[in-house]
Structures are given as C-alpha cells and as structure tokens.
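Justification of computing resources. Each target in the renewal requires a structure prediction run like the one illustrated here; the chain below, 112 residues long, is used simply to show the kind of job we budget for.
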Amino acid sequence: MTDTPTSSLLLAVVQAQDGENAQDALEQLGFSVTRLPSVGGFLGRRNSTLIISIPEGKRAKAVEALNATCRQRVEYIAVPLESAPLPLPAPTPVTIGGATILALEIEHYEEF
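Resulting structure tokens:
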C-alpha cells in the first residue's frame, strides 16, 4: 500500500482496428496495458479502451506512441435532408478515430 503519487493512469479510447497496434507499441516501451472492448455512443462503432499504468515522468512517451498508432479517418453517415419531400439521406462526412486520452493521478492504491 502506498500514498505517494508516483504514477498515473491513462484511459485511452481508440478505434478497435487501432487497439492491438497501440497496445503492442505501449508494451514495447515497457508500459503495463489492459485492453477492454467498448462501443462509441455517437456512431455505435467498436472501440478499444486501453488502461495504461504510467510511471512518473513517462506520460509524454505514452502519448507519442498513441499518436503514432491511432489515426483519424473520415466516414460517411446518412443524414436526412430537411427540405426534401421524402426523407432522402444525404451522405455527410464525419471524422472519427484518433485517441481520446484521460489522465488520472494515482494518490493511493492497494494490492492484495
């Protein structure tokens, strides 16, 4: 048990197709990574949520690895036209992907 803030925890939400590459890159740098399947709320696409243990001073390396392995993509969704007499869908480009990263400072943890 420790109360010393010596590390942080990153939660990174990435597209499912980038999850394995991101996990491999982070593990090659020596980070401990757990990958969980998840689903996006806006488009309902498959994602991976990476839980990454980061020692003090190493956050920039982890973010670099995520930036190098997780790319943004343009997909098209069907949006109904407002003034059309029939609900005709119009393809609308939406940028998806990359990584959404949340950093949590660890002040206390216990191991049993």
